[in-house]
Each structure stands twice: as C-alpha cells, then as structure tokens.
Amino acid sequence: MKIWITLGIILCSGLLILTLWILPGAFSAKGKPPDLEIQLARFIRHWAVPSHLRHAQNPIPLEQEAFADALHHFADHCATCHANDGSGKTPMGPNFYPPVPDLREQTIQAMSDGELFYAIHYGVRFTGMPAWGKGDPDNDTESWNLVHFIRHLPDITPEEIKKMKSMNPMTQAAREEQEALDSFLAGEDFQPAAEHHH
Ligand code: HEC
Fold first, then answer.
1. Closest Cα to residue 157, out of 63, 99, 85, 51?
2. How far apart are the first and last CA of the chain?
3. Residue-wise over 130-143: b if at least 16 C-beta within 10 A, else e?
4. Mind listing the pLDDT tens digit for each residue in 24-56?
5. Whose CA is nearest to atom 8 of ligand 1?
6. Is residue 132 in contact with ligand 1, taking CB distance under 6 Å?
7. Using a 6 Å cutoff on CB, does residue 81 contact ligand 1?
8. CATH of segment(s) 35-185
9. What share of the chain is helix, strand, coil (3-state, %, to 5)?
C-alpha cells in the first residue's frame, strides 16, 4: 500500500515538473513547427480524412465559367492569407502556427483532390484555416471548383494575378480612394478622399 502511494506521488510530481517545463510558450504562435511535428500532423490528418475522400478525384469537370468563379472566390476569400499566387506570402501568412503553406509546393500538390476538398470544406482544426463549406458536403461544388483552382496555381499567369488584384477585398479607405480616382478619370469633379492622420 505504502509503495503504491509513494509511486503515485513520484509519478504525479514528475508529470507536474514535466508540464511546468513544457508549458511556458506552448501556446505561442511564434516560431516554426519542427519537421517531426509537421510530418506527424500530416500523417495523422491523412488518416483522419474519411476513406471515401482520402483518395478521391475531383468529381466536378473543369469548366471555364466555374473556374472563373473559383478564381474570383479565391481572390476574395482566400488571398488575404494565401496570396493571389498561393505562395502564402501575405502580412499574416507566415505568422500563423503552423504557417500558411505554399499551395504550389509538392507537399500540397501531392495531396489528393479529396484531401484538398476536405481541408476547404471542413477547415483544419488547431490552425488558422477556417471551414468554408456550407450545408451538405455532397452539394459543395464551390469547394471542388476551388480544388481545380489550387491545381492550377503552379501555372498561374501574370494576367490572372492582375485580374485577381482587382478582386481582392479592399478597406473602406482604399475603396473611397479608388472611387474618387475612378470618377476623376471619368471626367467628374475630383474629390480627394479624406486625409488620414496617424
Ligand atoms: C485566415 C487565414 C486563412 C484563410 C482566409 C484561408 N486559409 Fe487556407 N490555410 C490557412 C492556414 C493557416 C493553413 C495551414 C493549415 C495546415 O498547416 O494544415 C491553410 C491551409 C490550406 C490548404 C492546405 C491544407 C493543408 O493540408 O495544409 C488549402 C488547400 C487551403 N488552405 C485552401 C484555402 C482556400 C481555398 C481558402 C478560401 C476559400 C482558404 N484556404 C482561406 C489559412 C487560411
């Protein structure tokens, strides 16, 4: 009996010391995740994708109009974190834990269509990647079209990037400035946007 109590106390204090040693900084988003952590997380996530999606191919054929919608959708909703070219080089991108990956890279392009769909529809827990799917995943053609767009990212053209820039969300101030400039260019009276003091 005494032995068990002693062992219990030793075990508990050991765990406490370990926790106090690991805990400081454990919730900071600074720093890069170690390779082992990335590989382990990706391995577990691969198996966490339901089997009917794990190796699924995109069931939606690639059509021009839907592709144009996906490009617009990406510029409007995804580029704030992922950048128009998918590089992840945005003010926020590298500061997430884990950081926003370069969607053009092999690690991501090697994922199956179904895995990409799963990440978009359901998001990725414990990361900055939100869930975008609404309603029944079986009717979520939008996310499947985004998968087509992600497959196209390694070959994205400067013209497409330019088009996307005009679709990126704007701040109120930037929109007012743009509107003032547009009306000026259209020959209307020039009204400069209100000046901003910092
Ligand atoms: C608020 C920032 C943010 C936005 C907005 C965002 N993402 Fe992400 N996304 C992330 C982060 C962070 C990751 C990395 C997750 C990880 O490491 O697993 C990620 C990962 C991904 C991945 C790869 C999944 C993986 O295994 O890493 C895909 C595909 C993706 N995002 C697509 C999109 C699409 C499409 C949109 C828009 C509909 C979008 N994301 C919007 C932050 C964002």
1. 85
2. 70
3. eebbeeeeeebebb
4. 888 899 999 999 999 999 999 999 999 999 999
5. 129
6. yes
7. yes
8. 1.10.760
9. 60, 0, 40
Task: Tally Cβ neighbours within 10 Å of residue 129.
Answer: 19
| CB-ligand 1 contact for 114 (6 Å cutoff) | no
Q: Which residues contact 99 (CB under 8 A, 6 or more apart)?
A: 32, 88, 93
Domain residue extents for the chain: 35-185
Q: What digits encode the pLDDT tens for the residues 65-100?
A: 999 999 999 999 999 999 999 999 999 999 999 999
**Tokens matching residue 114:** 């179904």
Which residues does 13 contact at the CB level (< 8 Å), separation at least 6? none
Q: Judge if the beta carbon of residue 97 lies within 6 A of ligand 1.
A: no
Q: Which of 107, 72, 69 is nearest to 88 (CA)?
A: 107
